[in-house]
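A quick aside before the break. I want you to see a complete sequence-to-structure record at least once, exactly as it would be stored in a machine-readable document. Don't worry about memorizing anything.
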Amino acid sequence: MNIVTGCGNLEAIRKEDVQKVLDDFAGQELYIHLETTNGVYTGFRRPDQLSVGAFIRNGKIRYSRGKITGNGPYRVGLKMESGWVYAEGLTDWEVDDKGRLLLAGHHKDGKLAIALELSKEPF
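That is the input. The structure line, written in tokens, reads:
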């Protein structure tokens, strides 16, 4: 399952459950997928609006501490040796059948705004 495809069984984030998975993954070499978007065609539909996004897939990451904060939407921070990776605006999550932590943030209309995925294997 990949959040970006919209498949799977994502459910509303339960902070305590996500925190446990973040703790379990700490100290391991993982693959990360991090993607943000406000809509690829935003700039074409509304020229006065800036279209922005960020994307990394199968980057390697090892963090010493992972933390989920907020009351919804949520923010996840991953403390690395030389800095931080963080994602905010997260609303949904799951651990899929491959053991990957999949987090997503969706707009009220269901469109994906952010995806953060962590895996022991490449995506």
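Two observations worth writing down. The helical segments are 15-25, 42-45. The mean pLDDT is 89. We'll return to this after the break.
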